[in-house]
Design brief:
The chain is an alpha+beta fold. Helices cover 39% and strands 25% of the residues. The chain contains 4 helices and 8 strands. It has helices at 3-19, 25-34, 73-79, 87-93; strands spanning 38-42, 45-49, 51-52, 55-56, 59-60, 81-82, 85-86, 98-103. A hairpin with a 2-residue loop joins strand 1 and strand 2. It is globular, with a radius of gyration of 14 Å.
Length: 104
Amino acid sequence: MDIKRKEINAKMIFDDLSDSNEVNYEVFLFFLKQGREIEFTYNGEEYFIPNHKKGRVLLNEEGDHLNHYIENMEEFVSNAKIDGLTLKEIFQNQNDKIEFGIIF
């Protein structure tokens, strides 16, 4: 994929996000790869994913680490879990139970 096409795809993701509150896996992964820190609610519980020099980690609302730090984003979403489901599974299949909070 060339750079121009990547820029168009990124713009489409942002346009899609700004037009609705729909949460989807592509937007989530895009934000992670951009280095953004993400707050979200899943099943009424709040979670936070900071961007740390050690990588990404999933924190619950008490600040407990729910996984170890992982640098690779695809590996992170495939290993970080909530209630036995990976973030990838949650954002792909249960996005109706997710609401984005603040995205830094």
